[in-house]
Amino acid sequence: MPDPDAYIALISSLPGSERLFVAKQPPLSRLRLDRRLSALKPEDARVLKVLERALNWSDYDMDVTDAQAIERCKEALRDIPQPTLRKVFIERMDLRTAIAALRLRKQGGNPPTGAYGTGRWSRHIPANWSDPTFKLDGPMPWIKEAKQLLDGEDPLGLERLLLSVSQKQLKRHAARHYFDFEAVAIYVLTWNIFDRWAQSNAQDAAKRFEHLAQQAMAGVAEIGFDGASA
Amino acid sequence: MNELVLTLGWLGIYAPMALGAAASAIGCSIAGMASIGAMTETDGGYGRFVGVSAFPSTMVIYGIVIMFTLNRDVTPENAGGLFGIGILSGIALMYCGIWQGRACAAAINATKEKPEIFGLSLAPAAIIEGFGVFAFVFALVISAGIS
To answer: Given an 8 Å threshold on Cβ–Cβ distance, is A179 in contact with B105?
Structure first.
């Protein structure tokens, strides 16, 4: 039986997850977070590693195929025993499947027949391929905005929308867990979203800097600026 | 048969004390762990955290008072009453202590971020204390009717 008080000291030693998104400076570095996570029991640490490995894009090789990514997700789901974390994982996979389908369709693809995503909507989407939102407005109210951002060639806006949706999903699940392992795992996943959010802001800032610098230097010389390739 | 009834009577006398002590130990440890965690994240207000973690210790005091009130010669006539009052008040104190510890832990976790809500965040723990007082007071009232 899971212990609802298993990680009281650990949770209390972490800055509130809300503060992650309003702070100008990261209130907690990954190094410090990992140091705090050393208090996890070995079996919980293993589940957290599986969860992060399957959800973090940085843990995937650049040349990973759809089938390999899907297989990794299915393997991860087998290794996650906590019902709440399974729901979190499945919701994130549903989100990724819908976005993958939107991207495929934008590239002019036909309804996919092979592996392109996973989860309960992977058959529903090809069956409703011609509908702008795959008839998923109900379970995924954000999909319309995602489609508009994708059509409007705004990858940064899309990235922020998806991070915001993911964060809301985590927040909903966090309301039922205070000091147990699920609360710790949800905190770490929220931290990962904050990290991605901060990175996307840095990329945005680099783009704006390049744009302003080019404006200022216009007519002075032909100077190329690196570092904002996004 | 009489021996069993007498044993239950003695069990009833000591139960509020034992269960109250268990409640205070568990509750204080839950809140104490939260205060230790919060201390690593904050730069001050440590005394407040430690003070809040001691809240559930009142349960053992209530248990001791109930035990002394119930303490008398155990007879086959009063053993059932002693057992009922002692065990049920002890269980009530135990639940109050454990959940008060959790409420205190949540309060400590919240006030490390927002010190200005310190007083208000203790309201759930104070309400639980009120339920513990109910169990305590009415155990004393009812025990007056046992010969």
So the answer is: yes
List helix spans (H) across chain A.
8-12, 17-22, 30-37, 42-55, 66-79, 83-106, 124-127, 143-151, 155-174, 181-217
Contact B125, B103 (CB under 8 A): yes
User: Which chain B positions have a beta carbon within 8 Å of A11's beta carbon?
Assistant: 34, 37, 109
Residue-wise pLDDT tens digits, A157-199: 888 899 889 989 999 999 889 899 999 999 999 998 888 877 7
**Tell me, what's the ipTM?**
0.77
Percent helix, strand and coil across chain B, each rounded to 5? 85, 0, 15
| Residue in chain B nearest A39 by alpha carbon | B37
What residue in A sits closest to B36 (Cα-Cα)? A9
Domains of chain B: 2-143 (1.20.120.610)
pTM above 0.90, yes or no: no
Domain boundaries, chain A: 8-217
Record: contact A13-B113, CB cut-off 8 A: no
